[in-house]
Amino acid sequence: MTPTARRTAWVLLAGGGVAFVLLAWWLVPWSPVPDGPVEPVRPEDWFSAEQLARAEDFSRWARAWSWSSLAVSIAVACWLGLSRRGRAWADRVPGPWWVQVVVLVAAVEVLRRLVTLPFGVALEQLRRDHGLSTRSWAGYAADLVRNEALGIVVISLALVLLVGLARRLPRAWPAVAGLLVAALVVLGSFVYPVVVEPAFNSFEPLPDGPLRQGIVELADQEGVEIGDVLVVDASRRTSALNAYVSGFGSTRRVVVYDTLVDDLPVDQALSVVAHELAHAQHDDVLVGTALGAAGAVAGVGLLALCLGFLARRGWPGPGRAAVVPVALALVAVGGFLASPVQNGISRQIETRADVDALRVSDPEAFAEMQVRLAERSLGDVTPPAWSQWWFGSHPTTLFRLGLTQDNR
Fold first, then answer.
1. Model confidence over 36-47: pLDDT tens digits?
2. Reduced to 3 states, what is the DSSP secondary structure of residue 311?
3. pTM score
4. DSSP string over 217-286
């Protein structure tokens, strides 16, 4: 790595980091509750002892399988990328450099999937045992293959770009790579609803009726323009109840699970949709995309510095295909360490959406819906504090029920 490339990487890291902080300060609702801190409710006031015990039993095992899978996945990535044997294996892959990149990405990702497959199967069996998964094992395998293929394509594209730029532009490659990766983040967020989601599910417009009429009225009340509300066939995979907003601009859409349409009373379903419309009102997908793009710029700068540091100590440099396992190991560790920041921001945004939903919907229905969702998904209403801080992307159920108390 040339001195110029090293200086460029420092500029990317600093510039992307400053942009991320400024965007987070400007766009993230750091005080989403107007009346100040919320006191979570007591679990025994809303759930029976049997419900709490069942949810805790499920959550304990779900955490065990998920965390074990994550730990093993990161360990395997680090062994392949940072050990002497891993480096020797990467150097032996034949073919042109761009073929080597794709082969190495596929090999690393497939191996990580295979070694974590027992944990994934155990988690799927746990979900089946508790009535949360409705898909067959063939459906589970098909979803696994589709997810893996999509991941390999996206990661290969990014790393072919990175290695190719490092080969052709040894001085300026971090800057060009950072900007292109940020552009890919924006493009991916924009096309995801129309390119990726249809590969996994089928969508159809929500039929006319009280729910659709209520959604239209809520959208008018919140000042949100919606082209259509879609129903996704989630019931072929899960019994959970959910809704979401994806895309932005012309690809933005509000999607509700068919389980939610079929199993929730209209007033409770509307409280879920009101939350999602609040995300649309504040352009939260676009906010997340902007933060992701800034984070990508900083991440590429940090990755370039780490790769340069390791290259000076004998590891493959960024212009060689053998750098792929090293880069994947660093990204795996970096993604894990960045989780508290990402999830902390997500919780603030989700809290604002809850507050806005309570403003336009019935607090009683909102509270009943939160209880129903927790019961249906066996959600852990009392997760370990450190787990919620590190991995929790949404406020806890008890916190959200506390919000409803303040709005009654």
1. 788 899 999 999
2. helix
3. 0.91
4. HHHHHHT---S-EEEE-GGGTB----EEEE--GGG-EEEEEHHHHHHS-HHHHHHHHHHHHHHHHTTHHH
